[in-house]
Amino acid sequence: MTLKHSDPPFVSLAGLHSRALDQLGLAICAGELGPGSSLTLEEIEERCGISRSVARETVRVLEAMRLVVSRRRIGVVVLPESEWNLYDPQVIRWRLDSPDRAEQLSSMVELRAAIEPEAARLAATRATADEVSELIALSGRLWAAGEQGDDERFLKLDVEFHARILRLSGNAMFSRLDGLIGQMLVSRTEHGLVPDRPASVALQLHVDVAGAIQRRDPEGAYAIMRSILVAALDEIDGLSVAAERVASTHVGR
């Protein structure tokens, strides 16, 4: 006997759930399913090609992220962005995969500019000597990867560098933002919103902020980290404008 909407035996339930979650999450974050849109469980089954049990689990996770809410006699209703858990790593990824990713990146860099300079300032007063020594070594490896054009290694070290400074701030709430910032750095790279090669000035600034923390210069660490983020915001804006020009040129052909 064949059951309707049965899950293919060669695909794990976890894989089906992950695929359905990505499909619906991106549709919501990209605006395809706007606020107030509603879907029944049957429609979710059909849309994603999944069973009722997987559909229910997918909705449960989306509800936990505050992207949707289940309402009797209506179904699964999409909530406005003001309700979303914008700090959830998956929501961040979906927003950065949407057409307005440059705007999303800009808002996240603005958040970083409010947090990371202060984290660097606190690190200059709170980090231990061993922790600072490790940060200096990390900044050197980051600089070398950028100079050598090793993009994959540079990205990994860049994520680690910024997460390390959040932790060295000694502020537990700052350190919990490492996932958000790491996802932003990864998505920015994936979508080509970075220069082809890190600028020498940017590489040196990462070394300099580590040096300011080593010198126990909190104000210097704050100012240098802020300059890194201002430069990142300028890069995103510049690359977004360039991408729009290329797109308009192709449309005109």
Describe the structure.
With 253 residues, this protein is mostly helical. Helices cover 70% and strands 4% of the residues. The chain has 11 helices and 3 strands. The protein has helices at 13-29, 41-48, 52-64, 89-96, 101-126, 129-147, 151-168, 172-175, 178-190, 200-214, 218-252, and strands spanning 38-39, 68-71, 75-78. It has a 3-stranded antiparallel sheet. Helix 5 (101-126) runs antiparallel to helix 11 and helix 6 (129-147) packs antiparallel against helix 7 (151-168).
List keywords for this structure.
mainly alpha, 70% helix, disordered N terminus, 253 residues, elongated, 3-stranded antiparallel beta sheet
SSE blueprint:
Blueprint: H1 13-29, E1 38-39, H2 41-48, H3 52-64, E2 68-71, E3 75-78, H4 89-96, H5 101-126, H6 129-147, H7 151-168, H8 172-175, H9 178-190, H10 200-214, H11 218-252
Antiparallel strand pairs: 1-3, 2-3
Helix pairs in contact: 1-3, 1-4, 2-3, 4-9, 5-7, 5-10, 5-11, 6-7, 6-10, 7-9, 10-11
